[in-house]
Design a protein that fits this description.
InterPro entries: Selenoprotein_Rdx-typ, SelWTH-like, Thioredoxin-like_sf. Keywords: Acetylation, Redox-active center, Selenocysteine. Pfam families: Rdx. It is a single chain. The chain is of the alpha+beta class. Helix content is 37%, strand content 18%. The protein has helices spanning 8-22, 43-59, 108-119, and strands at 34-39, 65-67, 77-82, 88-93.
């Protein structure tokens, strides 16, 4: 019986090719303007992130909303605006808020108002 082979090499190759596509000829990474929501993977965080991403998509449909593009930190709930010039603006952070737990999550309208300030 042949030993089982892990398929990690194929996954790593796929990630590296996608990273290569994102880089420009001069070596800098291509940065597109987007709203990033980082939230812990518990159910409560996910429900709040879904409602917030829907409100952001309705308010600014031209901006892509990315939810957890990388592995989130434990207990985190942050909303960040990434700009084309490579800078970022924090729209909301709930890391240092609470207890109670509900203080970690913003009302969608609060974040939309912050987004409007940065876009105008």
């Amino acid at each position: 019986m042949a030993p089982r082979v892990r398929k990690r090499k194929a996954e790593a190759a796929a990630v590296s090719t996608s990273e290569k596509r994102e880089k420009l000829e001069n070596g800098k990474e291509q940065v597109e303007e987007a709203v990033v929501i980082e939230h812990c993977t518990s159910r409560v965080y996910g429900r709040n992130a879904a409602a917030l991403s829907q409100a952001l998509r309705l308010e600014a449909p031209e901006l892509p909303v990315k939810v957890n593009p990388s592995k989130p930190r434990r207990g985190s709930f942050e909303v960040t605006l990434l700009r084309r010039d490579g800078t970022s603006a924090e729209l909301w952070t709930g890391i240092k808020k609470g207890p109670p737990r509900k203080l970690k999550f913003p009302e969608p309208q609060e974040v939309v108002e912050e987004l409007k300030k940065y876009l105008s």
